[in-house]
Design goal:
This protein is mainly alpha-helical. The chain has 7 helices and no strands.
Length: 166
C-alpha cells in the first residue's frame, strides 16, 4: 500500500476522533462549533483523481455522521465541497505549476491560502447548517452558526497549517 494513502487514512482517523471526542462538545456562544475535519478535503493535491477525492470525502462524512448523529448532513456537505475543491484550487495556481502541487500555506502564501480556506469552509458551513436545520425558522441563529463555525474552523485550520510549516 502506498505510504501516502496510509498517511491520509491515519490523518482522517485522527481528525474524526478529535471531532467526535472533543470538538463536537465545543459550542462557543451556543452556536459556533469547530468543524476541523474539513481540513482533510482542503488538502487534496491537484493530481488526485476527482472520483478519489469524492470517495474520500464521502467516507469521512459518513464516519462523522455516525459519531455526530447528523444522518447524511456531513457526508453530503463534504462531498459537495470535494466536488468543487479541485476547480477552486486551480484558480490559485499557475497553469504551468507541477501536477503534484498541494494547497498549503507554504505554496500559496498566507493571503491566498487564508482566502482559499475561508471560502471553502464558508461553503461547507452554509451547506451543513442549511441541511441540519432544513428550515429558516430561526434565521439569526442559522446565520450565527454559519459565521461562527466558519471563523473558528478557519482560524483552527490556519493555526494547524502554520504549525505544520515550521
Amino acid at each position: 500500500m502506498n505510504i501516502n494513502i496510509l498517511k491520509r487514512i491515519s490523518f482522517m482517523l485522527v481528525l474524526c476522533l478529535m471531532q467526535a471526542l472533543v470538538l463536537n462538545h465545543i459550542h462557543i456562544f451556543g452556536c459556533a462549533t469547530p468543524l476541523l475535519y474539513v481540513y482533510l478535503v482542503l488538502l487534496f493535491p491537484r493530481d488526485m483523481a476527482k472520483w478519489a477525492v469524492l470517495v474520500w470525502a464521502f467516507v469521512m462524512g459518513v464516519i462523522i455522521d455516525i459519531f455526530s448523529n447528523t444522518p447524511g448532513v456531513a457526508s453530503a456537505s463534504l462531498t459537495a465541497i470535494a466536488a468543487i475543491q479541485p476547480y477552486f484550487f486551480s484558480l490559485f495556481i499557475q497553469h504551468d505549476a507541477p501536477e503534484d502541487v498541494k494547497p498549503s500555506l507554504r505554496y500559496l502564501g498566507f493571503g491566498k491560502f487564508a482566502f482559499y480556506v475561508f471560502v471553502l469552509v464558508l461553503a461547507y458551513c452554509l451547506l451543513f447548517f442549511t441541511l441540519e436545520t432544513f428550515h429558516f425558522f430561526n434565521l439569526i441563529y442559522w446565520v450565527e452558526c454559519i459565521i461562527g463555525s466558519t471563523l473558528i474552523t478557519t482560524v483552527l485550520i490556519l493555526t494547524l497549517e502554520s504549525i505544520k510549516v515550521r
